[in-house]
């Protein structure tokens, strides 16, 4: 049986939230910022940390 890890939503400051909202409007999707400290350490490598509070999925 597979164990589900708890992944938490990031706490964003006002500037970060405004940037997320701007990006959502520009690209027409809903973005979710996850707390990188709660992401699984072993995995596919789909998430990359960029030394800030958000994580990116390379595409």
Quickly list its features:
59 residues, two-stranded antiparallel ribbon, Uroporphyrinogen-III decarboxylase
Report on the architecture of this protein.
The chain is an alpha+beta fold and 59 residues long. It has one domain. It has one helix and two strands; from the N terminus they run αββ. The protein has one helix spanning 14-27, and strands spanning 48-49, 55-56. The protein has a two-stranded antiparallel ribbon. A hairpin with a 5-residue loop joins strand 1 (48-49) and strand 2. The radius of gyration is 13 Å and the shape is elongated. The relative contact order is 0.24.
Q: What strand line-up does the widest sheet have? A: 1-2
In N-to-C order, the SSE pattern is HEE
In total, how many beta strands? 2
Portion in helices: 10-25%
Give the termini separation. 30 Å
Rg is: 13 Å
Low-confidence stretches: none
Please state the structural category: alpha+beta
Beta content: 5-15%
> Residue-averaged pLDDT, rounded?
75
Coarse shape: elongated
Count of helical stretches: 1
Counting structural domains, the number is 1
Q: Report on the biggest sheet.
A: 2 strands, antiparallel
Organism: Lysinibacillus zambalensis
Protein name: Uroporphyrinogen-III decarboxylase
Summarize it.
The protein has 59 residues and is α+β, with helices and mostly antiparallel strands. The chain is built from one helix and two strands, in the order αββ. It has one domain.
Write the layout of secondary structure elements.
Blueprint: H1 14-27, E1 48-49, E2 55-56
